[in-house]
Write a structure and sequence with these properties.
- By secondary structure, this protein is mainly alpha-helical.
- The chain contains 7 helices and 5 strands; from the N terminus they run H-E-H-E-H-E-H-E-E-H-H-H.
- The chain starts with a helix and ends in a 27-residue tail after the last helix.
């Protein structure tokens, strides 16, 4: 349960560590009540909703970003944390392993495994060099593949390859059907310009 999970984490980690929870989703009030019930509210800071223009500055003040979802696609919150240069501890679900390489930008753990989570946190707080290097790699990965211009051009290339593949398949289908030879010409796809100017961060 969430109660056992929280107590295990609280008892295992050093007293000087503090947890900051950002967001105001449907579980917000339940988490606040749970912290009071377990008498650990003095170690947990509930920030609630933070606007995007303030979130980056807030994240830069933290040491580690922890993401423990049981299922996920490619969470925007992890991208925000990478932009802030934070080492990531995350469950190994959905598209997360596509941007977080284990022991490079962060540490990947199995969903629901409290022992792995505690070990990952202990590893980072006990090794300052590892923490700093993962944070550096996290920001570096963001700059390399997650900036708006990088994503824009990558998506354009994917669409172009897909269209050319369709052209080839369609031409082959005409030949097999005994129809007149007609080959579609490869098409250069140009996407609309992104709303965010090229080179700027989307966050």
């Amino acid at each position: 349960t969430t109660e056992i999970y929280t107590l295990s984490l609280h008892d295992a980690l050093p007293i000087y560590l503090n947890l900051w929870i950002i967001g105001d989703g449907p579980e917000y009030n339940n988490l606040v009540d749970l912290a009071k019930k377990l008498e650990i509210e003095n170690r947990i800071n509930f920030e609630g909703f933070i606007s995007e223009n303030l979130l980056y500055e807030k994240l830069k003040k933290f040491d580690i970003f922890v993401f423990t979802s049981l299922w996920e696609g490619l969470p925007y919150s992890i991208i925000e944390a990478m932009r802030a240069g934070l080492p990531i501890i995350s469950t190994n679900v959905g598209g997360i392993p596509e941007i977080i390489e284990n022991m490079k930008e962060g540490i990947l753990i199995n969903p629901g495994n409290i022992e792995e989570l505690i070990h990952a946190i202990e590893l980072l707080i006990s090794d300052k060099n590892l923490l700093v290097n993962m944070g550096y790699n996290s920001r570096k990965k963001f700059n390399e593949i997650l900036l708006i211009d990088k994503m824009y051009h990558s998506f354009n290339k994917v669409l172009l390859k897909l269209w050319n593949r369709i052209c080839i398949m369609f031409s082959r289908a005409i030949i097999l059907a005994g129809g007149k030879w007609t080959r579609l010409k490869p098409y250069t796809i140009t996407l609309p310009k992104p709303l965010v100017p090229i080179g700027e961060n989307p966050i």
